[in-house]
Amino acid sequence: MHEDALRFGANYTPSRGWFHHWLDFDLDEVRADLDSLAALGLDHVRVFPLWPVFQPNRTLIRPRAVEQLVALADAAAERGLDVAVDGLQGHLSSFDFLPAWTRTWHRRSLFADRQVVSGQAEYLRTLAAALADRPNFLGMTVGNEINQFSDDPHPDPDRITPRQAARWLERMLAACEEGAPGRFHVHAEYDAAWYRDGHPFTVAQAARLGAATAVHSWVFNGTAQRHGPAGTATEQHAAYLIELSKAWALDPHRPVWLQEVGSPAPLIGAERAAAFTEATVAGALDCPDLWGVTWWCSHDVSRELADFPELEYGLGLLTNDRRTKPAGAALARIAARWRGRAHRPAVRSTALVVDVGGADAAPRRSVCAPGGAFFEAWAALTAQGVRPAVVLAELAADPAHLSSRGITEVLRVPEPT
């Protein structure tokens, strides 16, 4: 694979038992799932150990569970698939998975309690170390959107400050690095980090900590409701988050991983899933420094499982019985077109200025959210055929910064009339 080649993969949702498959691990079923993904021409999967299953007690990380994770990684390698592993699950598809030693009678902060943090770090280090000698192991993601546990609208958050969030992220990433030095270790938040004023996990943390910036693009956040299934803002939402992140990055060529993106019904109807996939990925591919695209998700959730939000059942590239869906066929076509090719899109030389009240805390980051002045201005420019990058207000007149990113024109958000 060319060193600049794009990566195309899927977030692996097992077709039998969903993530509860860890309780009844069946390697033959896993192999069949991975066969169906390899047949799409994908090159990696992101996998999700369930934290309470793997670490049911603070000082017990189950060896058998870790062996099963390694067996999954080895099965992926046999099919030409690399593996990225999320650690702290955390939260998946509307369900929380937290070990009993952090809740109710043992309630302690997930982010600030010394013993909990130490247990988390040892868990992440252990998983990373178990996979460190596997050539197809990409690296760890600290957890899946674990920032939701720190703030509203979670019904029972462990509230912290931005300083505490940064300290926790640095500790978790260091644990991953200790277990598997030099791998692609990242962290990933849902979009409150980008859009919610006062949220303790910040854009600066997302864009500066870890080996890459991971973005999760979900248009059910108000984008598709406001702009419709085929609106520019909807089809370009992933590209928008990629470009927004680059405004905060200290390295002008920091890689950005579109780690989650999907076509949620009914906002994106089944009849539009393939077109949405094509348009979304095309938008992302028009962003310099994109590492890759990892679609959510691999296989539909079985209707035998209860109480999921309706949209979660049909997000797969493949059905629950491993038949390719239109979105899966679309992603396979894109992956085939790009296989082995270098990804070098044109520089985005025009930048739109974002003022969030200061880069570190971003107290006014809601201007970046759907309906916010900056979000809507960026979408309007894109609809006109402009390819806008994003630059922070405090750097908009810095010649060295602009030059490092190839920006030659700076635009301002129009004042409201």
UniProtKB/TrEMBL annotation:
InterPro entries (UniProt xref): GH (IPR017853)
Superkingdom of the organism of origin: Bacteria
Keywords attached to this entry: Hydrolase
Molecular-function GO terms, alphabetical: hydrolase activity
Record flagged with keyword Hydrolase: yes
SUPFAM superfamilies given in the database record: (Trans)glycosidases
Protein name stated in the entry: Glycosyl hydrolase
Species assigned in the record: Streptomyces subrutilus
Source taxonomy: Bacteria, Bacillati, Actinomycetota, Actinomycetes, Kitasatosporales
